[in-house]
Structure formats: structure tokens, C-alpha cells
């Protein structure tokens, strides 16, 4: 498990360095992610210990954004006074996004048996 | 001599000065959320993250703990977001196998869907009079929360509002997917799954897996591709459009 964690941290560090010096617009961890995907493809498989750590993170991803999301308490008055706008924008945009994605996919893969 | 038993307020002062209190609060709220989610038969409305956010927010308000103070302790959990983002490389690598022969339709659908999410979300929020901070939270809300918050930080938008809207979007997508897809007459599972993953990231993906394994695989691919492409394209769009 530790070997997998070390690998992830190394790629995170690499991603942060690339972001800092070459691609300041893109979050470092995303660059680390892309580099790790490239490395795993080149290597031709996912090492067991890396797989274990990744699964543990994936299963509890939600836990990690609680500290930041709790900050909504500071936005409470703003959120309440714009509640209707937020609700309408959230519902309409998720339905529209699903619909457009699905329709484009269907239109472009007509001869795909699926 | 009997050992002095400290008064309860001294224990309190000690605990609230260390990161321990915020960590216990965060993890136990999440644990309660997970238990409620399991007990509800994995109903998307009983989302464990939503429950945990409400519990922690209510608790720190009740005990009069400033948010900055809570975050000081909880930052150890927050720090792992970047590490968890890198770890997404593993499911994405495995999912890439499912791309075979479908690269073009999927990329086109993803770009169309991602653009729709922004145009409708940001556009409607602005149109209905929401303030700049709130409108900013809509840019990355269809991207998986850890990456969405990274995009928000780089683009000087609020990571907090982005995370809150991302969680809400995931829950809404999981609830509304059936009626939307049935309404459009979408029959193939991989297309339904991919659309849900693009629109409603991780929460949509776990919903897709619970309905059909093929939908789940494609949802996870949709979420992963949206995360990576979104990190590049949304950051650029915010800089030049917003």
C-alpha cells in the first residue's frame, strides 16, 4: 500500500512542478493524473498496491471535499437571497447537459450496435 | 494526594485548540452520512456528503466555532484532495479500454455537454440576478468536485461554492436521469451512462453503476474525460470569457 501511495505522491509532486513552471493555468494534480495515466499505459497495467490505494481514495472521495464545502455557512445569506436563481440554474443545467450529451452521442453513433 | 480532575471547560479549551476536534467532527459526520445512505437503500437524496456538510455546518454554528478555525484543523483532510485527484488516474486508465472505436462520438458529446452545462448554468444564474460569486460557482460544477475545486482555485472563483454546486448537481443528476433519458427515448446503456457521468460526475457514476454495469463503466469514463478536458478548457474559458 505504501508503494502505491509513494507513486501517487511522486506524480502529484511532478504535476505541481510542471504546473508551476510551464502550465500555470491547469491544476497541478490534474497534470499529475495525466502523467500517471500515460505512465500506466506505457507500463501496460496497474500495480496491485497502486490499485489498492486508488480504490480507497475513490470510495471515500466525498469525505475529502467536506472541509471546503462546509464554507457554505459563510455564503448562507447570499445563497438564501438567490435561492430561486440557484435552484433553477442547477436543475435546468444538469438536465440540459445530460440531454445534449446523450443526443449528440446517439446522433454520432447510429451504426454502433451498443 | 489525589490527581486533579480538570474541569470540563479546560478539556474543551484543550480540544478546540488542536486539529483533533475538527477532524473528529468531519470524519464522524461523514460516517453518519454513509450509515444513513446505506440504510436508505442508497437513495441519492440521502447523499453522505450532503448529510455530512449539513451536520458539520450545524455543529460549528451551534458551538460558535468560526469557519476559519474549523478549516485550520480539517485542512489535513482537505490536503488529500490533490492526492485523490492523481489517484483518479487508475480508474481512468482502466476505463480507456471502453473507448475502443467510440472516441470521436464520445469526445464530441463531451464537448457539447460540457459547453451546455456552462452556458445554461452560468447563463441562467446571471439572467436570474445571482451575484458574481454565485455565478462563478457554476463554471466547473459538472466536473468531479476535487478537480472542479482545483479549477476554481486557479481561476479565482470560490472553491466552496463550486464544491457545493457540484454536490447538488450530482444529486440532481442522479435523481433526474431516468425521466430525462426515458423522455428522449435513449435506449443504449453506454450512452445513458456516459451522459450521466459527464453531467453529474461521481454521484452520477455511482448511480449508473447501481443501475447497470455498462452504464457505470461509461459514466466513469465520462466523468474522467470531463475532469481532464474540463481542467484545461474551463480554465481557459474563465480567463477569456468571464
Explained architecture:
The complex is a heterodimer of chains A (114) and B (242). Chain A is built from 7 helices and no strands. Chain A folds into 2 domains: 1-66, no CATH class; 71-114. In chain A, helix 1 packs across helix 3 (48-59). Chain A is 81% helix and 0% strand. The mean pLDDT of chain A is 93. Chain B has 2 domains: 1-80, no CATH class; 104-242, no CATH class. In chain B, helix 2 (19-39) packs across helix 4 (67-87), helix 5 crosses helix 11 (213-241) and helix 8 crosses helix 9. The chains are: A mainly alpha (114), B mainly alpha (242). The interface between A and B is large, with 73 and 112 residues.
Task: Compose a concise summary of this entry.
The complex is a heterodimer of chains A (114) and B (242). Chain A has 114 residues and is an all-alpha fold.
Biggest sheet descriptor of chain A: none
| Cα separation of the termini of chain A | 37 Å
State the helicity of chain A in percent bands: over 70%
H-E string of chain A? HHHHHHH
CA-to-CA gap between the ends of chain B? 70 Å
Structural class of chain B: mainly alpha
Largest interface: A-B, 73 and 112 residues
Query: Care to count the β-strands of chain B?
Result: 0
Domain module tally of chain A = 2
Shape of chain A: extended
| Strand residue content of chain B | under 5%
The total tally of domains of chain B equals 2
Q: Structural class of the secondary elements of chain A?
A: mainly alpha
Low-confidence stretches of chain A: none
Series of secondary-structure elements of chain B, N-terminal to C-terminal: HHHHHHHHHHH
Biggest sheet details of chain B: none
Question: Which term fits the overall shape of chain B?
Answer: globular
Number of helices in the DSSP assignment of chain B = 11
Question: Mean of the pLDDT scores of chain B?
Answer: 92
Q: What's the total helix number of chain A?
A: 7
Mean pLDDT of chain A: 93
